[in-house]
Design a protein that fits this description.
There is one protein chain. A hairpin with a 7-residue loop joins strand 3 (54-59) and strand 4 (67-71). This protein is α+β, with helices and mostly antiparallel strands. It has helices at 21-32, 97-109, 146-155, 165-173, 178-186; strands at 14-18, 35-41, 54-59, 67-71, 90-93, 116-119, 123-129, 135-141, 161-162. The protein folds into two domains: 14-71, glyoxalase-related enzyme like fold, CATH 3.30.1900; 88-201, 2,3-Dihydroxybiphenyl 1,2-Dioxygenase, domain 1, CATH 3.10.180. It is 26% helix and 23% strand. The protein contains five helices and nine strands; from the N terminus they run E-H-E-E-E-E-H-E-E-E-H-E-H-H. Helix 2 (97-109) packs across helix 4 (165-173). The chain has a five-stranded mixed β-sheet.
Length: 202
């Protein structure tokens, strides 16, 4: 038993409070392919002892759950959240740029659009908002290698080039490689016609 050296655990799941469990489980299922691995109401007689009325554990990979959603009747969104401490966003990583762009196209066909899309150097990220107004990032590693992306983060200034995913899709269909998309994004080739509101992230 190691009692002297810090162990580095992996981030396994997040817990969120919601007033609408159906809307949240539906959105995460539609957007990220998450399934409900367990859902139950609070046990009878638990009123006053448990602050939630139902819970759902959802995931989209081999782990039993990535999100725990607790339904608490009567809770409301915070209209002044920009002035309060909170979780800023959660992120999910795809393997390839085609997965990311294909997901964007699928969601667009369902009327679900990102509030911001950008090449951020080590990765390309599209940001969405769930039914409770939580920011959800979907991304890819531009380098295809975590160590290289980490070196980029350590040695490069933080910055982002805003992008129009539709322009990226057109370039990809015209034969641009994933790395060429990254370089062209940083060169400003995929700038959106209408700029994103940076306040949407905060």
């Amino acid at each position: 038993m190691n009692t002297d050296i810090t162990i580095h655990p992996k981030l396994q799941h997040l817990g969120l409070v919601t007033a609408n469990l159906d809307a949240m489980t539906g959105w995460y299922g539609q957007v990220l392919g998450m399934t409900i691995n367990h859902r139950s109401a609070a046990p009878a007689g638990a009123a006053g002892r448990r602050p939630f009325s139902a819970v759902a554990f959802i995931g989209n990979d081999e782990v039993h759950h990535r999100l725990a959603l607790f339904e608490v009747p009567g809770v409301a969104g915070d209209p002044d959240k920009a002035r309060h401490i909170r979780l800023q966003h959660i992120a999910f990583e795809y393997q390839t740029i085609d997965d990311l762009l294909g997901t964007y196209a699928r969601l667009k066909s369902l009327g679900i659009l990102p509030v911001m899309a950008a090449d951020e150097g080590m990765g390309t990220s599209f940001y969405y908002v769930d039914p409770d107004q939580n920011n959800v990032e979907i991304n890819i590693n531009n380098y295809g290698n975590e160590w290289t992306a980490t070196e980029h983060m350590k040695n490069s200034p933080f910055g982002r080039a805003l992008v129009d995913p539709d322009k990226m899709i057109a370039a990809r269909k015209a034969g641009a490689s994933p790395w060429a998309l990254h370089e062209r994004a940083l060169a400003g080739e995929f700038v959106p016609e209408k700029s994103y509101d940076p306040r949407s992230q905060f």
